[in-house]
Amino acid sequence: MALSTDRPKVAKTPANRTIRAPSLTELAFREIEGMIITGELETGERINDSQLAKRFGISRGPVREAIGRLAAAGLVEMIQNRGAYVRVIDVEDALEIYDIRAALERAGVAGAARNMSPELLARLREQVATMDRCEQEGDREGYFDSNLQFHRIIHEAAGNARLLELCERFARELKLFRHLSLITAGIHQSNQEHHQILAALEEGDANKAADAMEAHVWQAKARLVALAESLKGKPHDLRAPH
């Protein structure tokens, strides 16, 4: 599967800004990231840059650069004298991520509340409606994806580039965590918490939205702890509440 580079190298926007086509490194980064997120490259698996370069129809240089970027993004672990491996996220790693996310998400939704618009509210309502449908249909993967999109809209609306970067990093890392399931009860509670966050944003109450978001993250962590305890010693291939 060769990487597509058929786009024009330069395009003009209405504001007369120049947009350059993605480099081979960027294209390789996107492809490998997708392979990791979908599980085609499994956690703990060694990444063979020669095979990937052959698959993409490019030299090893851009692939190696892409792997380095993925390591910086938290998806790949570089082991000296052994190579690059898809990072393994265990329960302890996930719990640490939730601890940091509580503060980040609180700050993010408070900033988003100040920048909220009818368009942004409409996008958030759309994601909540999708989560409602996924809950009813038992679609865990669909719920997980819409859940991430709900949070991403809020992160972007906050207008804080560093906060967005950190939240995106942690979201990518949590995508690697597949040990615990969004069981039906967990999905329902998580979904109700999203409704509460949305309601606070609709009211324009930044403090209420921040409290609801922080409580949501702590509850997600509590669900993870409870499930981890209940599944000790049992075989499972599950995903964490979020």
UniProtKB/TrEMBL annotation:
Taxonomically, which superkingdom?
Bacteria
Q: Does the keyword Cytoplasm apply?
A: no
Question: Cross-referenced PANTHER family, in alphabetical order?
Answer: TRANSCRIPTIONAL REGULATOR, GNTR FAMILY (PTHR43537), UXU OPERON TRANSCRIPTIONAL REGULATOR (PTHR43537:SF5)
Q: Name any one Pfam family assigned in the record.
A: FCD
Say yes or no: keyword DNA-binding present: yes
> Boundaries of each HTH gntR-type domain copy?
22-89
> GO MF annotations for this entry?
DNA binding; DNA-binding transcription factor activity
What are the UniProt keywords, alphabetically? DNA-binding, Transcription, Transcription regulation
What InterPro entries does the annotation carry? GntR_C, TF_FadR/GntR_C, Tscrpt_reg_HTH_GntR, WH-like_DNA-bd_sf, WH_DNA-bd_sf
Q: What is this protein called?
A: GntR family transcriptional regulator
